[in-house]
Amino acid sequence: MSPLYRLNFRREAFRRERAEARVRAIGLAVWLAYFGVLAVVVGLYALNHDSLRRRSEGLERQIARQRADSNGGDAWIPRPEEAALVEPWVGDVARWRDLLVRLPGLLPEGGRLTALQWNPDELTGGERRLVLNGLLRADRDADPTAAVTDLVGAIAADSLVSAHFRSVRLVSTRTAADGTAEFTVECR
Fold first, then answer.
1. Tell me: the pLDDT tens digits for 75-93?
2. Which pTM was predicted?
3. Pairing mode, strands 130-137 and 168-175
4. How far apart are CA 61 and CA 54, in angstroms?
5. How far is 121 from 123, CA to CA, in rounded Å?
6. Between β-strands 180-187 and 168-175, what pairing exists: parallel, antiparallel or unpaired?
7. 123 to each of 81, 85, 90, 168, 181, how far by Cα in Å?
């Protein structure tokens, strides 16, 4: 015959062992998490070191190749045709400064330039190209696109702009409901 209930006289010892096992498990988890994070950090440093080493080796090879180049090693001496390509660009720094100073004066009230890009295609030896991006807030009664075309006409009629570029054209314009026009003008 089995008893209806059973007394466990070791209940307190069982609870104490379970609490100790829980503390050991939590301690082991904390230890593993600490060393896991440490391993990840050290691994990231190792990857960064490897990437930096490879980049440095590539730059050293590039420098060695340039030094061994037949153009004179460390002292680069351009060929006459290369110097002729660069000469017009270097000679007119003051004129570019004057042009950049004059551009804000050509903008009507409520207009501002947001970006100015010189040779955005990064083509060398080609024609000069200046791209102007901006915003123009027209009067309530005025059409914003008409204000933008007036601005393009004013830029094209300016003597400094016409001295540097043979054409000024409106590439794109986008108007918003609040009367603001976003424009892109290209000078070639």
1. 667 778 877 776 666 666 6
2. 0.51
3. unpaired
4. 11
5. 5
6. antiparallel
7. 17, 12, 16, 19, 29
